Amino acid sequence: MTVLAKTPLAIALLVGLTDLRGAEEYGADIRPLLEQYCQKCHSTVTRRGDLDLQRFADVEDIREDLGVWRKLIAMLEDGEMPPEDNPQPSMAERTRIVDWARALIVSEAQANSGDPGRVVLRRLSNAQYDNTVRDLTGCDLDPSREFPADGAAGEGFTNAGEALVMSPGLIEKYFAAAKKISRHAVLLPDGIRFSKYTTRQDWTAEALQKIRTFYGRHTERKRREWMYGEIPFAVDFGQAPLEEYIRATLTYRQHSDASGPGLAELAAKRRLSKKYLQTLWSVLNGELGRNSFLLDELRSRWQSLKPEKSDKLVAEIRRWQHSLWKFNSVGHFNQWLEPAVPLVRKQSFAVPIETKTEGEKVVVHLFVGEAGDGSDGDFLVWKRPRFEGNPIPVPGDRPRPSDLPPILLRDLPIAITSHTPDGADQVVFGQHLDSETPDDASFILQAPAVVEVPVPQSLIGQRQFVVEVELCPQIGGAGSVQAHVSLQKLQPVAEIIPPVDAKDDHPEANAHPEPAKFPVIVRDDRQKQKFTVAFSAHREWLPPAMCYTQIVPVDEGITIVLFHREDSFLSRFILEEEEKQELDRLWRELRYISQDALKIHDSFDTWWNFGAHYGRFSRESREVPIRQRAERFREQLRGSEPRHVDAVLEFARRAYRRPLAVGEKIELLELYRSLRGLDVPHDEAIRKVLVRVLVSPSFLYRIEEPAPRDSPQPVSSWELASRLSYFLWSSMPDAKLRQVAARGTIKEPEVLLEQTTRMLRDARGRALAIEFAAQWLGFREFNLHEGINEERFPEFAALRWSMYEESLLFFEDMIRCDRPVSDMIDADHTFLNGQLARLYDIPNVAGSKHRRIEGLKKFGRGGVLGMATILTKQSGASRTSPVLRGNWILETLLGNQLPKPPPKVPQLPNDETETNGLTLRQLVEKHRSIEQCAVCHDKIDPLGFALEGFDPIGRRRDHDLAGRPIDRHAVVSEGPEQVKFKGIVGLRNYLLEYRWEEFLSNFCRKLLGYALGRAVEVSDEALLLEMHRELEKNDYRFSSAVITIVSSKQFQCHRGRDVAEKK
Amino acid sequence: MVNHHHLARRTVLRGLGASLSLPWLESLPVWGDEPKPSQRSSEPPLRFACLFAGNGFHKKEWWAQGKGEAMQLGQVLEPLAPFKQKLNFFHGLFNAEALKGNIHSSQTGNLLSGAPIAAGGTIRCGTSIDQLLAQRIGHQTKVPSLVLGCEKSIASVHKNYSMLYSSHISWSSPTTPTPLEIYPALAFDRLFKSNRAATGDTSILDAVLTDAGRIRGRISKLDRQKLDEYLHSVRDVERRIERAAHEGRFQGWHPTLVKPDRERPADGLPQDIDQHMRLMCDILILAFQTDTTRFCTLKLNNDISSLRFANLGVGHTIHHMLSHQESDNWLKVNHFFVRQVAYVAQRLDEIQEGERTLLDNSALLFCSSMLTGNHDASQLPVVLLGRAGGQLETGRVLDYRDRPNRKMSSLYLSLAAKFGVALEHFGDSDEALAEV
Q: Over pLDDT 90: what percentage of chain B?
């Protein structure tokens, strides 16, 4: 066998042939040699291996089909042909053919260099169709799920026009898919949106959710529940995260002197509303809400507040909010939030005396506090404190009064002590220091004080403690107090106590309609006024809820309200102008989508018949506004129809990836009108026009319209935008790309470069990992790989996704972060999750999410050679396959072309434990001892042997499944040299040292073939060379290859419409 | 309004004019010149089906000898024993073009066409016999032809040949492999779902035809050929809708079943391969019985198939790996495939159409693209069931190994003649196969 020294064609772009010389030499020298050595098998008649060399009568014929001659060169150089048992040309003859053919190819390549090539009209592949529909609608609908799988052509990718066929069956599928997609269109007041759902009910829920999500951006969702008698009520509302705001004010206060962040900056950093933070700051600094002693007290506490205590302050504010506000069920008559005014003139108490054990000492505490404004005039009369018989429970009815006679406290033989901050004193009935005497069974106390009443249980029997209190009209008229009776011990206090003492999640927080626990008792109007003002200021600046997040009022027995909007506090305190508009828009959409105006009108009768017993309104007064609203809504619907028609035109523009011609626009409008003419409702007609757009060839195909010339023509700006987006994203151009296409600036090199770099970084760059890298290397859809024996590898099925994701992330990262393509061979990193790291035996990686792992080489991996996807895909079901793995490296990774195996290949066992005592390697080596096989297998097998340290699912191993030690040594011939290496490390170094140029050339070839959607031709050699050089110049960064391609003539031009079709 | 659109379409059609004699259309009638629904004879029609199994069969157990009831069958073929008198076994047929090029990826695509297969990342083969017949005479039924499969097609280029070739035996044109329907429910819909259009459907089809017509004038000749795939596909769908409006006006012979007698299969792909194949077989049977189509190919698996057969207890490895070993498991799997054929034959034979059974009125071809798992295509495994309406003598083992003409394409020429389609040549043959 003769082997010539190989010269990559790209490097040999030196000397071409002149036409004349080439033609002469072919007839005189070359053709006779072919006749002599080749045409026994490769004549027009015999055509062995589909190869007919006889048909090349002259150089013109050869020019038409140079690919064959490239192969011929390779065969002669490799000594593959003629076969050993046939007459062999001499070295000189071989060289003569090769040199001549190469010179011809070079001259051809130079003459046609940059020819855009034969690019067949491309239908969107299934992946492109899915991605395009996704970007067109904003919804991941996966519409191609049941389409037939696409085939591959060109350089082995599913984006080549030739393999993308059409059939009546497929048209029907596109039709059906388009109808399905159109059902996802949601008509809005000002256009069309797509939803993942297809019913009005779901769209309504979605619109609702959008509003709730909006609310959730600024508030925390809270729930308050309460009982109205026997009926439970609840309301969901949004609350500003007050504690975070308070903490922010503290931080700001600490740094406000100098260097710290401004309020706005702080708000942005903590994702708080700048507006509300500013408001709170002003309140806390006394610039707002100045006339409230309640807020004054808050301010003074805030002044001395330590950050870690801020929750205490917030709890206090919350208690006040409970005291000053009442939530109502949202129905037709109520305000959802109502101010509560915890001011009373009188208060009565009835406290049951409950003891756990017989003879336990029970004390009743009577408490009077100053209500925060000093003790002036705080004289409270405790009227006839007494023990009354316990009410007797009646099943199913109210308890009835007891028959026991009441016992006045005065009449009991016990000492009653009053405790004040100044000391203890005896309580005296019927008199006071200032001789203002009440009833002789009553007494007067000045706040602050607590009276202890030891209860003589033996005397009171089944009785409870009862008392009424009010300010003493003569001396206490201008005072204000808070009173309480309790069995617990109480301290006399001067501060005002929040009248309602409960938390949000406590039913008592909205205890309706019972009065507050600690209302302020006042008598005098001035006092009353003082408190009312203080309360109002608190209410004004510190509302308990910003919005009604429930929206759907389900808390009313009967209501005719479908959606209730309450967010005025949110708008006032928190939202910026733009946000207010957004919220208004969301609400408009909800009303529009849900059509609640119509539904309410439709259900008015039912509601009226149920609700008529309210009797407060006439039917007319209730119905008219509802009917008017429905009419207004119908008008709005009609008014919005032209918006939808416009939106369909805009949809078509995006779907066709170019502006519409006037005729197209008219035709779309015409179709809409004709459908309406057939009594198709607006909504349906719009959907049908969408369907029409989605089955149009302008959508389904990537149509390019070359100028009627016979020379290459630049593609249009829009065509270039599509070429770019389908290359990098497998999808349509986005808004930014459309913009530069519309302006035409996309053709300016800087703009093209800028767009290319932007697009590579974009998340949609993942498509390039799937459609290019995974398809090239053969692991696309590895998540569905079925080739492994699950009995032997039960863990495999669950690992497939993790393996696939590793490889995809590796390439996604290479593409989006512009890493060197040499990483494919030589990376020291990859992306693993816990599960896969366990398989790889790499410690300290946990969780189901993949993350970047460095230092991979020390675990015997790195690059695609150590990836489970590759190793598994190129294995048998129950054994490794050094042949498949070696072949993959040669053919797929390095782009070598090996001849097909001879018809009767010896068989290898299915399982590496069933090998009659030999290792798989030994079996394969036996196979190689057959000379016919050795030609290729001497090249293939050693590469696979080096990877024998990985089992069929890519786990590292020292022994095979039958327990025999693994031999990872390999020897390959490089010319006269025998290169020896071992394992993945040796293989990697071998590839880098000896096969690097082949790898890089193949990478360039594959990427170019993918980018252009066609097979790579001789006329692309110069471009391949340029890609090669640019990669070398730019540290092998992925983007440099992409940029070279998109800047090329091949990418930016197509053949003129009138170019003669070459075979 | 309706008229307006009708007019619009006609204008387009006229605009397309002379350019319609494209390779894709070699057998399609020119538009506007559609065949009149032929006078239905009182004779039941002929049907053609091809069931394909990839990767060949067990080397030692694919054989037959003897005649009629005395015929002996190799183990692989045992399930066909009840049909000895209704089948022909062929020895030594081959497809010369399949010997060129690569293994697998260039062996299957031309099985039904005998055409050369293009390498180098382009797609070019030949119109397959089933599609050619469907294009000539398939418009007599609601669905011209049915192309079914039980395995998804493979997307890659293998040793310079697209794996499209491995995945498709039916080709609507030399450049158009007919997409396989692998979803039973969708295949069922294609046959039996009403073609009556929803309001506006025809307007939409007219509109997109207008698009295509407009585009056609602005693109290269090469692209025009590709766009014509689209045009004709849309036109075909439209024609079906038109025909649906006139359904039921034919006289003469009536199929024994008017509506499907079973429910539409569930959506999605069946979990188990035996269910999947059985459903597809049932659809084929139903299609023939209701005379919804007369031409059907069913690709039971791909060449280089990854199917697994847990139902046979050999779920541990894929079909392709099994094919490289002459094991008992391989035999089991072969058997399973032949049982599908036997099932179809049996069901067809149970349906009486006048004096003959539906099987008698059919030509049911069962074959693979190689004899055994080692890619040897020098002789193909071929069995033909049914009497082609009495035109075909059966119960024979026909040996062509030493004859000058042993081309598959010759067999197709013979079969086409029985369907009343006279072809001078087909694929690489211009003479019919002796004795068929």
A: 58
Residue A513 lies in a domain: no
Query: Do A354 and A390 reside in the same domain of the chain?
Result: yes
User: What per-residue string of b and e applies to A177-192 under the rule 16 or more CB within 10 Å gives b?
Assistant: bbbebbebbbbbbeeb
* Structural domain ending residue among the three candidates A69, A94, A112: A112
Domain annotation covers residue A722: no
CB atoms within 10 A of CB A446: 22
Taking 80 as the threshold, does the pLDDT of residue A7 lie above it? Answer: no
Q: Tell me whether residues A903 and B164 touch, CB distance under 8 A.
A: no
Task: Find the residue in A nearest to B212 (Cα).
Answer: A697
Domain containing residue A976: 881-889+897-988
Residues A441 and A552 placed together within one structural domain of the fold: no
For B377, the closest chain A residue by CA position comes to: A903
pLDDT digits (tens, 9 = 90+) for A341-391: 889 999 999 998 877 666 677 889 999 998 888 888 888 999 999 999 988
Terminal C-alpha separation, chain A: 34
Shortest distance, CA B12 to any CA of chain A (angstroms): 14
Q: Which pLDDT band, with edges at 50, 70 and 90, does A289 fall under? A: confident
Subunit contact A705:B325, Cβ cutoff 8 A? no
What does the block give as tokens for B196?
């009556």
Residue identified by tokens 């150590």 is A866
Each residue of A809-853: pLDDT tens digit?
999 999 999 999 999 999 999 999 999 999 999 999 999 999 999
Q: Residue A513: is the preceding peptide bond cis (ω within 30°)?
A: yes
For residue A554, is pLDDT > 90?
no
Whether the CA torsion B12, B14, B15, B17 is positive or negative: it is positive
d(CA A342, CA A530): 13
- Residues A283 and A252 placed together within one structural domain of the fold: yes
- % of chain A beyond a pLDDT of 90: 53
Query: Any bridge partners for residue A160, and if so which?
Result: none
pLDDT of res. A12: 45
Rounded Cα gap, residues B344 and B366, in angstroms: 11
Is A297 inside a domain boundary?
Answer: yes
Contacts with B, A 61-100, CB within 8 Å: 67
ipTM exceeding cut-off 0.85 for this assembly: no
Which among A988, A1016, A1044 is the end of a domain? A988
Q: Which CATH architecture has domain B45-194+264-418?
A: 3-Layer(aba) Sandwich (3.40)
- Out of A162-176, A329-343, B378-392, pick the least confident: A329-343
Write out chain B residues lying below 8 Å of A162, CB-based. Answer: 121-123, 162, 175
Instruction: Answer whether residue A850 is part of any domain.
Output: no
The verdict on A406 touching B (C-beta cutoff 8 Å) is: no
- What's the token pair of residue B160? 């310079």
Residue appearing with tokens 């060169």:
A73
A910 with A956, same domain?
yes
Q: Which of A746, A706, A721, A715 minimizes the C-alpha distance to A653?
A: A721
Residue range A855-877, pLDDT digits in tens = 999 999 999 999 999 999 999 88
Token pair of A680 as six digits: 């198709």
Tokens of A544: 């308990």
